[in-house]
Design brief:
Layout: H1 3-13, E1 47-48, E2 54-55, E3 57-61, H2 88-100, E4 106-110, H3 117-134, E5 140-144, H4 151-160, E6 163-165, H5 173-179, H6 185-216, E7 236-242, H7 249-263, E8 267-272, H8 290-305, H9 310-313, H10 328-335, E9 342-343, H11 349-352, H12 360-369, H13 377-382, H14 387-390, E10 394-395, H15 410-414
Parallel strand pairs: 3-4, 4-5, 5-6, 6-7, 7-8, 9-10
Antiparallel strand pairs: 1-2
Amino acid sequence: MNLQSKLAILADAAKYDASCASSGAAPRDSVGGRGLGSTEGMGICHSYAPDGRCISLLKILLTNFCQYDCLYCVNRVTSNVARARFAVDEVVQLTLDFYRRNCIEGLFLSSGIIQSPDYTMEQVVEVARVLREEHDFRGYIHLKTIPDASPELMERAGRYADRLSINIELPTAEGLKALAPEKDSAAIDRSMARMAIHIGEARAARKEQAAQAIVSMPQSRTTRRASVPHFAPGGQSTQMIVGADATSDRTILATSARLYGAHRLRRVYYSAFSPIPDAARALPLIAPPTVREHRLYQADWLMRFYGFAHEEIVPPSQGGMLALDMDPKLAWAIAHRERFPVNLNTAPREMLLRVPGFGVQTVDRLLAARRVRRLRHADLARLHVPLKKVLPFVEAADYRPGRALDATDLAARLAPPPLQRSLFD
């Protein structure tokens, strides 16, 4: 099989993995002719896949052969799909060629499990090692790690990668046991914990070295200590499949909150289950609505940046599911009308963040402005916030919402119009 045929198969097989953002990389460049590539600057030429996906990373599998039989995976051992496998040198050459053509900013590499987890992980790490050490590649590298691989291989991966990730696959251990019996949720959790420890230790060491450098700077400018090596400076992430089993949104968000707290994950990605050929009877026949995935991302944002606890985003009255017809922040505000309106001139930041239509940047601008003067209705217009959504929930020096919060049709007036249906629905 030629390289182009392999690329067609293994790039398509990697499209189901959503956790490929390139944030949090260590700053590197090739100024002065050193190495190849950088992780800085905005001059990246994005390429587009036939289905419209914007790709700034070469996103491929090392191989789509896999000895596991996860029911939801198109690459499972019993699946009847075309198979291919890259050699280490082929992945290296593809990465360098695409980078020189300004098509990508880095590499996202995952793989099916072949021979053993250690063997597969060793091949994945070798790609990163060759790029870094033999070609001085300074672009972004994201490696998908394998939970059952040895801690030594995980540690080596962290030396070369900007970000590491381990897919938790399903939100509950029961769901994983039912749909992917060869995978061990406890092993995944242990690998995440070890990775978090390594990342934390590396960051602490670098901070300590930076502090010592500042103290010793006046004493000697000639003595230089070797810098502490980076270990996955972009942190770690994971992905959960949504809709492959009956797990509720409330449980999914609870799992995400636990991962953020226990393992300090940078991101949890949510991937709507996609029906696959020759699917097992245990799987649903149709995919969940894509808006469900969107609502989970919105709820995840509320937990990470807006101070919401996971249990308050999905009230028990909704059967553990997020409302599909409005965003979770608006749904929370309408369900807690007694907390509103909030006064723009006196409310704490925590409460302003809960106002529908206010983002983090908007709230910070309001707080800065009210230090010098009282906020008025016109100030909201200058910030270009969605006034229709905001005004029922706030009051200013010259504005009161009156009885707008008591309107029985408030939800209907503020919720967005239904999405246009497809011609084929």
